[in-house]
Amino acid sequence: MLPVFICLDPNTTMDMRRFLFFSLAFLFIYRFLISYAMLVRNLTTDQHALLEFKHQILDPHNTLADNWSVTTSVCNWIGVSCDAKHRRVNSLNLSNMGLTGTIPPQLANLSFLVSLNLSYNNFHGHLPSAIYNISSLQTIYLSSNNLSGSLPENICHQLPKIETLFLEINEFSGQIPSRIGDCSNLQNFSLWRSKFNGIIPKSIGNLTRLKLLYLDDNYFEGEIPLEIGNLTGLKELYLEDNNLEGEIPWEIRNLKSLETFSASNMRLVGSISASILNISSLKYIYLNGNNLSSNLPGDICRRLPKLELLFLHKNEFSGQIPSRIGECSNLQNLSLSFNRFNGIIPRSIGNLTKLKELYLGVNSLEGEIPWEIRNLKSLETFSAPNMRLVGSISASIFNISSLKYIYVDGNNLSSNLPGDMCRRLPKLEQLYLFSNEFSGQIPSSIGECSNLQNLSLGENKFNGIIPKSIGNLTRLKVLYLNGNNLEGKIYFFV
What we know:
Elements: H1 14-55, E1 57-58, E2 80-82, E3 89-93, E4 100-101, E5 115-117, E6 122-126, E7 139-141, E8 146-148, H2 155-158, E9 164-166, E10 173-175, E11 188-190, E12 195-199, E13 212-214, E14 219-223, E15 236-238, E16 243-247, E17 260-262, E18 267-270, E19 284-286, E20 291-294, H3 300-303, E21 309-311, E22 316-320, E23 333-335, E24 340-344, E25 357-359, E26 364-368, E27 381-383, E28 388-391, E29 405-407, E30 412-415, H4 421-424, E31 430-432, E32 437-441, E33 454-456, E34 461-465, E35 478-480, E36 485-487
């Protein structure tokens, strides 16, 4: 409301002064009533939109039924926030309330809405296209429902302020709009686990403010666009479980802020040395289940100083495991199984003191398991089956008290099992030693491995009597002893 200034002549009569006073008072009251009426009307519009929403859904916990009442201001309703200036609804957060039903188009009448969060409910049906007409929207969270529909081609024009768009875990389909790059404010974009298809448009490289991009578990095809290399602020990129093929573009090395790159279970080929292995900020790399090849560079740890997880299993990598792999001091998960690596397990692997999971199996590795591996005091899983490993494991594997899962089947490992094996491995749950050259007797104290669920000692050279204490393994689900020289009975105590 604009102020009104009136200058009075000193000779103005008292009657004239009274007239002007009451005129100004009337004008003020009139303008106030007009403003109040507009406020009430706007709040009534918001209230009507929310009540229509309430009437079309099932509310199993009666959260809205007990709270959304016409006797209280809509701004005080649960999940609703209003802006201080206009007293209009600007935020609706009904996440994780178990709500079921369809979303009515009247929700688009919340014309001041900035944030919409309906995640983790059971909404279904098409998302009304009118929702995309709320030009004030900055964040949309619809994750984990059963909503369907497609993204409008001009979504960036309709939602010019959009910063976060999370549509993950729904039934949305269709293609990413070719002009998605016009959404210049977009920072977080997730279509994870939906039914989108087609190519990833080149214009996605124009989203220079993007930090999170989740396109995994859809039906996208074609190649990874090299324009993704323009997203220099990107921290997380998930592309896995699509139909993408071809090489990873070398331009991706420009993503100097990238911490997670996930592109598993597709048809990617070629080397990663010039692309992924040149992003020093990377912590998590998921590339398993492709046709990637080449050797791992000897200075991989210098290139990736922050690396915590490296999943390369089920590819065509070859050559030797870098002898300096132990310099990757932050590594917690290393999976190189189902490739074509050869040579020996490097001794420096014993320097990876943060390592929790180590998968090396189904390669052409040979030689002994280095005793230095006993230094991995956090290791829970050691998997090295179906190779040409030899020698004893007593001084290495059987001295890691944190181990829960041991898979070394299908090798040429030998020696006896130590009598105090259960004391050495108090957390042991699975022990797979079958198809090796182990000999001697099964330790009489085997029943002290109280957490053991799977015990597979078959196809070895064990002899003697099956110890009665094996019956104390009350959590045991799988017991495989055949193909040895054992005798006696198995006693299980209930």
